[in-house]
Amino acid sequence: MGDTSSGGGMTDTIRRIIDDEGRLAVDVSALDDDTNLYDAGLTSHASVNLMLALEDAFDIEFPDEMLRKQTFESVAAIRAALEELTTASMPQS
Amino acid sequence: MADLPANAPKEIESVAAMIGATSAAPAAAGVDRDARFPSEAIDALRREHLLSVLVPAALGGAGASIVEVAGAVEALGQHCASTAMVYAMHQIQVHCLVRHGRTPALEGYLRELAAAELLLASATTEVGIGGDVRASGCALERRDDRFHLEKQAPVISYGANADGILVTARTSAASPANDQVLVLCRRSSTLLTETSGWDTLGFRGTCSLGFRLSAEGPVDEVLADSFADIAAQTMLPTSHIVWSSVWLGIATSAVSTARRFIRNEARKSPGRAPAAAVRLAELVATLQEFSELVHGAARRYRECEDDTSELSSLGFAIAMNSLKLSSSAYVVDIVTRAMSVIGISAYREDSEYSLGRLLRDAHGAPLMINNDRIAGHNAQMLLVHKGE
Fold first, then answer.
1. In this predicted model, what pLDDT tens digit does every residue of A24-80 receive, in sequence order?
2. Residue B312: which of A39, A64, A70 has the nearest Cβ?
3. CB B91 within 8 A of CB B238
4. What pLDDT was estimated at residue B130?
């Protein structure tokens, strides 16, 4: 787990990207970290744009095995995936 | 034990082949000419318990897999594409119920389906939404433990002949368009008002008329899983596999006719192969590619059918969409080339080598869920999928 401050910054960035790309039926500020984004109106088309924006913002690439609905179903799930990717890349850097 | 034991899975394809030859084939020209429901063949499938084969044995079915069902669809498709398509579309619905129903009421319905060999239809598209099955305008209205649903369906294939219809709708009036459920609408509590006809080039016997649907029922006949999961894990892969099996049946039939024609030509001039025999050889090789593609996809789905993580991955969705794109192109190509092998006798409507109906049916393949839409979906997913 990352420390609270970087977790908070990451969460804010995730929420901003969802706001920009998610085309949700509700305002992203109304969502909890665990709210299901698909139930909130995230379509598969919008989810691809969300993935691309996340890859760009965090300078990572989601490997194919992460490209499934569950990975992007909530703010918390996205954060967990990003933390897994950034942690995994650390030893090499 | 029931007095009429259900078919063992391995027998399903051969029973379907028999029904295809004896019930579907003799009626196929009339079904096509009159755009009428292929009742002889569907009745025969019902008599032989082939409508319920996907229902688990514990609920009275044969517990067959998608591989056996795809084989049965392919066998029927060699005789009457409309019959095969009706059977295929029915099995898509049964597969959704078996895998995602998960309420005692729907388990009870599967028992009924197996006991009475009920026929299921589908109403996923909607007027004003376009062809996107993952969006609905209509919404389920719930009052206590009952639901009410009104839907303008541009197409409900064989809706007038079905015992039940699985219908998509938004979960509630407050839900966004893609927050959908799938609900069973029983014939007895559903009013269908015809709004458009079905006079098409091919698949005329599917009787895919438009209807205004008005239904009510108990809320525990709403499938338990969200339609998003049902679509990704079952409806889309099953559809692409069984539709491809219909088209493979059509292609196989066209190639069989071409083989018969060339054999007959060869007999007329012994010792010298007919000129088109070489093109037949190439055609048979293409049919083999098509066959391996469809059979491989059915096996792939069976092998991962309980792995929800794999089924909801972009890689799997891209593969199943690619199956549809390729299969629908193969069938048009193969029937067209079979016609050129046979020549004018295939072009004639009054010849024993006529391929007119098959050619018209084949051209439906790229259009049912338009290939442009499917290629667009794949193009979008390929922006993030690396294929590594």
1. 988 889 999 999 998 888 988 899 999 999 999 999 999 999 999 899 999 999 999
2. A70
3. yes
4. 78
Tokens 């969300």: give the residue: A50
Cα gap A15→A78, rounded to integer Å = 10
What CA–CA distance (Å, rounded) separates A90 from A87? 5
pLDDT in tens, B187-211: 999 999 999 999 999 999 999 999 9
Please report residues of A whose CB lies closer than 8 A to that of B387.
64
**What distance in Å separates the CA atoms of residue A8 and residue B34, rounded to the nearest whole number?**
67
A64 DSSP 8-state letter: G
Tokens of B333: 């190509």
B212 sits in which H/E element: strand B208-218
Give the pLDDT of residue B245. Answer: 98
Q: What length does chain A have?
A: 93
List chain B residues with CB under 8 Å of A69.
228, 232, 312
Chain A residues touching chain B at CB-CB below 8 Å: 24-25, 38-45, 48, 51-52, 55, 61-65, 67-70
Half-sphere exposure in the Cβ direction for B284 (13 Å, CA): 12
Task: Residue B11: count other Cβ atoms within 10 Å of its Cβ.
Answer: 18
Q: What is the dihedral of CA A29, A34, A39, A43, to 10 degrees?
A: 80
Q: Cα separation of B374 and B236, whole Å? A: 11
Question: For residue B222, what is the DSSP state?
Answer: B
Longest dimension (CA), chain A: 41
**A38 Cβ neighbours under 8 A, 6+ residues apart:** A47, A69, A73, B178, B179, B226, B228
